[in-house]
From TrEMBL:
GO cellular component: ATP-binding cassette (ABC) transporter complex
Name this protein carries in UniProt: Polyamine-transporting ATPase
Single Gene Ontology MF annotation: transmembrane transporter activity
Keywords: ATP-binding, Nucleotide-binding, Transport
Pfam families referenced in this protein's UniProt entry, alphabetically: ABC_tran, TOBE_2
Domain ABC transporter: 11-239
Taxonomic placement: Bacteria, Bacillati, Actinomycetota, Actinomycetes, Propionibacteriales
PROSITE patterns: ABC_TRANSPORTER_1, ABC_TRANSPORTER_2
Length: 372
């Protein structure tokens, strides 16, 4: 198989569009997954994640655009002609075959004679050596998922596609399998493209996340980049929680954009200000907002809002989640970490709020803030 000039086998989608009769599921998608990366396609139901994955697998063909692996064009290659394997949510194991034979299946089909050694190595990788003689129904959901993974990996694909592979597992098992998947991916060093609508799953596992919405990628970056510096209200709300507050841009300096929220002026670092004029949303994550009883001196530099009233208190052990109504009526979340003995501020308390300017972001307010 041919190699790109630099030898890399990056997966690249260029201008990929998928149209059904009267519906465009994926719109002019451009993305590159570097070789060996754990990449997540994250988005709500119907945003086009599975359609994108199916085109990479060869189960669907793009209406326009191209898909390449290194310098190999696989846009129209048959599924079995491309070095890509898929693990589906429903595992699709053969119920009448043992675990060993399920894993051996791909090799036997290729006519490989001596399957014992590679199958045993795969079973060891997914920690199922002791289950080799059992049938799939005798295993737990998490174990069946690992069999599906071993069965795909034994074919030595260059890219492994995972379509909501943990979707059928309960929450605790899903979190355990995330750690397991990440370990396996770093051991085998293959490119993983993981489709999920679970933001915690994507954040916990992926090197890079592409957030999809209505057939387009809204933003792509590391989990930290997306969380700290969302570029759209959709991304701000889909990954974690955020308060978006109506404001008007007042001044742009070389370092900050200053925005006016009903007379209170707040600063947003220039690299996080995605609008430079007119109306906008000031966004802030609730755990970045400090809350204190009214009049408590605040020594940290930052943006201050006085005259808030606590409207809701939710004690969740590790933190206390407050909802605070600001003087102009809009509400903002403020999560206080319960690191010591905490005095909980009851509903109706008068409070002051503050946050460091570097934590805020400024977004286009033409977008629906509740999207996502
Ligand atoms: P989910 O998480 O629910 O699987 P998804 O993000 O994977 O969602 P897709 O399965 O890619 O979404 O579907 C994207 C859109 O394309 C949906 O609105 C879906 O109804 C539509 N769609 C998918 N397949 C077809 C098809 N064969 N014909 C017409 N429309 C389709």
């Amino acid at each position: 198989m041919s190699q790109a000039a630099d030898g890399s086998r990056d997966l690249t989608l260029t201008g990929v569009t998928k149209e059904y009769a009267d519906f465009t599921a994926v719109k002019s998608l451009d993305l590159t997954v570097p070789q060996g990366e754990f990449f997540a396609l994250l988005g709500p139901s119907g945003c086009g994640k599975t359609t994108t994955l199916r085109m990479v697998a060869g189960l669907d063909t793009p209406t326009t655009g191209s898909i390449t692996l290194g310098d190999l064009d696989i846009t129209y290659a048959k599924p079995y002609q491309r070095p890509v394997n898929t693990v589906f949510q429903n595992y699709a194991l053969f119920p009448h075959l043992t675990i060993f034979e399920n894993v051996a299946f791909g090799l036997r089909r290729k006519g490989v004679k001596n399957v014992a050694q590679p199958v045993e190595a795969m079973l060891e990788l997914v920690e199922l050596t002791s289950q080799a003689r059992k049938k799939p129904t005798q295993l737990s959901g998490g174990q069946q998922q690992r069999v599906a993974l071993a069965r795909a990996l034994i074919n030595q694909p260059e890219v492994l596609l995972l379509d909501e592979p943990l979707g059928a597992l309960d929450l605790k098992l899903r979190r355990a399998m995330q750690t397991e998947l990440k370990r396996i991916q770093s051991e085998v060093g293959l490119t993983f493209v993981h489709v999920t609508h679970d933001q915690e799953e994507a954040m916990g596992m992926a090197d890079t996340i592409a957030v999809m919405n209505a057939g387009v990628i809204e933003q792509m970056g590391s989990p930290v980049e997306l969380y700290d510096n969302p570029r759209t209200a959709f991304v701000a709300n889909f990954l974690g929680r955020s308060s978006l507050m109506a404001a008007t841009v007042k001044e742009v300096t070389s370092e900050y954009v200053k925005a006016n929220m009903h007379g209170t002026v707040v600063s947003i670092p220039i690299e996080r200000a995605h609008v430079r004029e007119g109306s906008a949303w000031v966004g802030i994550r609730p755990e970045k907002v400090l809350i204190a009883a009214a009049g408590t001196p605040i020594d940290a530099p930052g943006n201050h809002i006085e005259g808030g009233i606590v409207t809701d208190v939710n004690y969740v052990g590790v933190s206390t989640e407050y909802l605070v109504r600001m003087p102009w009526g809009q509400e903002i979340g403020a999560f206080a970490q319960n690191t010591g003995h905490q005095d909980i501020l009851p509903v109706g308390s008068q409070v002051d709020l503050s946050w460091r300017p570097e934590f805020a972001f400024l977004l286009d307010s033409d977008e629906d803030p509740n999207a996502g």
